[in-house]
Amino acid sequence: MAWSYATHYSCDNCGEVYDLNQPLNTCPQCGGLLEIHYDLDKMKLELRPEQFAGREPSMWRWHEFYPLRSASHMISLGEGGTPLIPSVYAGPKLGLDRLYFKNDALMPTGSFKDRGFSLAVSFAKELGITRGLTYSSGNAGASFAAYAKRAGMHAAVLVEYLANPVKKSIIELYGADTATLYFDSMTEITDMLEQAVTNLGLYQFVNFINPVRHEAMKGYAYEISQLMDWAAPDVMIHPVGTGGGIWGAWKGFRELQQLGWISSLPRMVAVQPSATAPIPRAFRQGLTRAERHGDTSKTIAQSIAADSPIQGGTRVLRAVYDSGGFAEEVTDEEILEAMQWLGNEGICAEPASASTVAALKRAVAEGRIQSGESVVCVITGSGLKQPGAIQQTVTESPLRLNASYPELRELLSKLWG
């Protein structure tokens, strides 16, 4: 068996094919997004689900499904293999018997970005890349900084001016070179970075412009399907900024179906905050390309505040349409309530992550998700990185007591009767 069954890149737009040994971002011919392909026919002959059961519980359990050619270049902090947690609070409230949370808040740097950067930095190391660039609202920058440092790579992170101060500090803690980035729209950022690729030959790690990061998100499909006895959930709900998570997961589920390991595919649900929701807006209009929409400064869900998705969000919309899913927007008030709900599940989620539960509540009320369906909400990041948001969801208890047994007895009597 091969360490990897990856074969080549191809361009979404012009179809041009490229060798994986080339350090490419977007297509050199037309600037389109590149996708990595695999020899699924050979994988079907040589691989079986049971072969993966005894391997270490990380995303690298599935290394044959990623483009890295050699284990010697792998940069890992133990990412992936996060639990699929059955709901004990939200599910009963919504009448759902099979609601689960894929809790990537437990990742090494506190977010699902660790999947993508573990793979992308490892792949870059294999190609001989020694320096790289990304922009970030916080989580991606922290993850890139951590994995680049482990790889001995110089990392430059352009941190969005709206980023949470705690997240900014975490990026610098991991040793990246940082600069605060000011902009009017996400389009300005992508235009700037695409010019850097063309004119400077700079290798960068921005989702989709980097063709490797989203490949790691296929691990959602493998991990979830394995934990569900090789069946896909009926619905998978994912927060969307650039959309690498939902696109990668959808690609992973399709691969498993092609291999014959699962018999059906989930409906994919993309969630964005109402203040900046170009994907739901395009979906409502039946469009295959999203236009700039909203104001990224007007939402608490910083990690998914994206007013103009990369190359029109075509991949995200394709995943939604092809799966028979939908795109939903949710308000900050709904997100804050969802954070409280997740707290009752024992999960401390940042606002972007809690958006999945807010969208689920809407979808159940609208009849888009039925009581008998199995649903997975992806929790992409820890609420500990955005403490101000947690403080908005709860109020400090007014109860006070001195350290004396009579006062404690009186307090507990009031609380518990």
Automatic annotation (TrEMBL):
InterPro entries: Ser/Thr_Dehydratase (IPR050147), Thr_synthase-like (IPR004450), TrpB-like_PALP (IPR001926), TrpB-like_PALP_sf (IPR036052). It is an enzyme of class 4 (lyase). Residues 75-381 form the Tryptophan synthase beta chain-like PALP domain. It comes from Paenibacillus piri. The modification N6-(pyridoxal phosphate)lysine is found at K113. One of its GO terms (molecular function) is threonine deaminase activity. Belongs to the threonine synthase family. This is Threonine synthase. It comes from the Bacteria. One of its GO terms (biological process) is isoleucine biosynthetic process. Its cofactor is pyridoxal 5'-phosphate. Its EC number is 4.2.3.1. Keywords: Lyase, Pyridoxal phosphate.
